[in-house]
Specification:
By secondary structure, the protein is mainly α. The chain has one domain (10-99). The protein is 84% helix and 0% strand. The protein contains 3 helices and no strands. Helix 1 (10-23) packs across helix 2 (25-32). The termini are far apart.
Length: 102
């Protein structure tokens, strides 16, 4: 008769991995009756997931920064456009005064 496979929740796996870091891999694996290959698979899986989450977080942060910079760029463009219009208006007024419109 084959042994029934044990199933661990994600929280249990994380707790076992943390215990292995603090108490030592060999003693923790013995206490839970796990093989080293299972430990390595779990560790790789969670490290990849952690790296993916870090990449997603940095991507989201970068996208937010880009959006803020674009908004600031648009605001500055409007300010410059208004200043250019004011300068053109003033130059037109100066020309009218200088050459006098009668």
């Amino acid at each position: 008769m084959a042994l029934q496979r044990r199933k661990f929740t994600v929280e249990e796996k994380l707790r076992i991995l943390e215990e292995a870091q603090t108490r030592g891999v060999t003693s923790v694996l013995r206490s839970y009756n796990l093989s080293y290959s299972v430990y390595v698979k779990w560790k790789q899986k969670f490290l990849q997931a952690q790296n993916i989450n870090e990449l997603k977080d940095s991507y989201v942060t970068t996208q937010l920064e880009i959006k803020k910079l674009q908004e600031e760029n648009d605001r500055l463009k409007k300010i410059i456009a208004e200043q250019v219009l004011q300068l053109e208006f003033k130059e037109e007024e100066i020309r009218k005064i200088k050459f006098g419109k009668k």
